[in-house]
Automatic annotation (TrEMBL):
<feature type="DNA-binding region" description="H-T-H motif">
    <location>
        <begin position="39"/>
        <end position="58"/>
    </location>
</feature>
<dbReference type="Pfam" id="PF00440">
    <property type="entry name" value="TetR_N"/>
</dbReference>
<dbReference type="InterPro" id="IPR001647">
    <property type="entry name" value="HTH_TetR"/>
</dbReference>
<dbReference type="InterPro" id="IPR009057">
    <property type="entry name" value="Homeodomain-like_sf"/>
</dbReference>
<feature type="domain" description="HTH tetR-type">
    <location>
        <begin position="16"/>
        <end position="76"/>
    </location>
</feature>
<dbReference type="GO" id="GO:0003677">
    <property type="term" value="F:DNA binding"/>
</dbReference>
<keyword id="KW-0238">DNA-binding</keyword>
<protein>
    <submittedName>
        <fullName>TetR/AcrR family transcriptional regulator</fullName>
    </submittedName>
</protein>
Length: 201
């Protein structure tokens, strides 16, 4: 008699190990070679899996590379920026330090064959955070406008982030990116309401 449920957890762990090995190998090889132009066989050899396993998890090589970038952001960065912080500059610096620390990887991703997909993935990852920010700063906006304004903000922020990662001289200074982003935000954010009873002449 076959016992139901026993093989599945073992299979799930094996599948997860293969996926994790491929994601880690993708980041490692992109950093080592400073390019996304990496053969599928090199990725599978580094992860110690077959080509078939790669294609079971990802559509193609670029799909793996973009997934590896998303995984890096989700594991290392989002838990930090999801925590409520009163100091906006401190939160922006957390973001800047993450990207500066992984500059070689992100620069290759933003200039390689998967640059467009990489930019879209970053926009999607930070979209929900931006919607929260927009709701807080622009109280009373309807949801479609919140989504559109958040997309507008994240598109501009992504452009500044990409230029900083790709073009700025080494070593990157996270403070420089934070200053640029906050300077633009200060122009775009609505003015704080005056306390009751206080009116400017």
């Amino acid at each position: 008699m076959q016992r139901h449920g026993s093989p599945q957890p073992v299979q799930d762990r094996r599948v997860q190990r293969s996926r994790s090995a491929l994601l880690a190998a993708a980041v490692r090889l992109v950093v080592e070679r400073e390019t996304t132009d990496i053969a599928v066989t090199d990725l599978t050899d580094a992860a110690d899996v077959s080509r078939k396993v790669l294609y079971l998890h990802f559509a193609d090589r670029d799909g793996l590379l973009v997934a590896a970038a998303a995984d890096l952001v989700e594991r290392e960065l989002l838990p930090q920026v999801d925590e409520p912080v009163d100091d906006l500059r401190a939160q922006v610096l957390v973001l800047a330090h993450h990207f500066a620390g992984h500059r070689v990887f992100y620069r290759a991703m933003l200039t390689g064959s998967c640059a467009f997909a990489m930019s879209r993935t970053l926009d999607d990852l930070f979209g929900s955070l931006n919607r929260i920010f927009v709701r807080e700063q622009y109280a009373g906006l309807d949801e479609p406008t919140v989504r559109d304004l958040a997309a507008f903000f994240i598109g501009g922020a992504s452009r500044l982030l990409s230029e900083w990662l790709v073009d700025d001289a080494d070593p990157l200074r996270p403070e420089d990116l934070a200053d640029r982003l906050l300077r633009v935000a200060s122009v775009l954010m609505p003015p704080s309401p005056e306390p009751p009873g206080e009116h400017r002449p």
